[in-house]
Design a protein that fits this description.
Elements (H helix, E strand, L loop, with lengths): L5 E4 L2 E4 L13 E8 L6 E8 L10 E2 L6
Antiparallel strand pairs: 1-2, 3-4, 3-5
C-alpha cells in the first residue's frame, strides 16, 4: 500500500489531504463514495481521497490498481 499519494501538477508534487469532513490527515488512498444527486434520488460515484482511518469506512470504495 502506498504511504502517500503524490500527484504531479506543473512540475510540483502535491500530497492530497483526506476529503472527509474535519480530517486534516494526508491521504493514502484514492477511491469513491456514493453521493446523492441534488437533482433527484440517484446516487452517483464521487472521487475522494482518504487517510488510513477513513478508508476503512463502509461508504468508501477504494480504486484497485491492476498490473498490465
Amino acid at each position: 500500500m502506498l504511504s502517500n499519494l503524490n500527484f504531479i501538477r506543473k512540475g510540483e508534487s502535491k500530497v492530497q489531504k483526506c476529503n472527509y469532513v474535519g480530517c486534516k490527515s494526508d491521504a493514502t488512498t484514492k477511491g469513491f463514495v456514493l453521493a446523492r444527486n441534488s437533482q433527484g434520488r440517484k446516487h452517483l460515484p464521487t472521487d475522494v481521497f482518504a487517510c488510513d482511518k477513513h478508508k476503512k469506512s463502509k461508504s468508501f470504495f477504494e480504486y484497485k490498481v491492476t498490473k498490465a
